Amino acid sequence: MEHDMDSTVKLLDATVDECDFVATCHYIQAEGDKLARIRYGLPSAIINVVVGSVLVADLGKVVPDAMKWITALLALVSTFLVSIQTFFSFQERERGHRELGNQFNKIGRLLSRTKAAWLDKSITDAEFTKRFEAIMEEYEKVCEANEATPPSRNVARRLKDREDRKKAEQKFKDLLESAPD
């Protein structure tokens, strides 16, 4: 006897949408962390080259005292930038967001394939339920990992606003197309 799977399919579809949304948030956050890493790391590297050049020039006693003070100040700025980079761990955060984004995408794909197999009747209701429950257990584990490295609220809000605008534009477009001339 077949039973109604509408609620399970609705949950599956909502979970796929949630996975897509959260994965995109993580990818956007990873890009932000990458840019922050560059924003603090590149100036630090340039400053260190300048400081190193001045120190080498100082060995020949060709650098005025004012330049030595500027070099000392630049060395402090460089140290500050490196400290910020170290404290916020931009590279590790970037990697963590990308990994979580990949995990959420994987779950979305597994759920979509399971639904497609069920709709094609290549798996039974029982097999569908078994696969769905196994994937949802994996989803819960990824959600727990997400709690340790969540994307920022700003990223999520901006993405949600963008998606809402797209939906509203599509509804408006559909309304215009369905209106009689």
Summary?
With 181 residues, this protein is mainly alpha-helical. The chain has helices spanning 6-59, 65-88, 90-119, 125-148, 153-178.
Structural class: mainly alpha
How is the biggest beta sheet arranged? none
Roughly how many Å is the radius of gyration? 26 Å
- Span between termini: 49 Å
Helix count?
5
Low-confidence parts lasting 5 or more residues at pLDDT below 50? none
Element-by-element helix/strand order:
HHHHH
Q: Helix proportion of residues, in percent?
A: over 70%
Number of strands: 0
Measured by DSSP, the beta-strand proportion falls in under 5%
> What is the overall shape?
elongated
| Overall pLDDT confidence | 83
Task: Summarize the structure in words.
This protein is mostly helical and 181 residues long. 87% of the residues lie in helices and 0% in strands. The protein has 5 helices and no strands. It has helices at 6-59, 65-88, 90-119, 125-148, 153-178. Helix 1 (6-59) runs antiparallel to helix 2 (65-88), helix 1 crosses helix 5 (153-178) and helix 3 runs antiparallel to helix 4 (125-148). The longest helix is centred in the first third of the chain and has 54 residues, at 6-59. The radius of gyration is 26 Å and the shape is elongated.
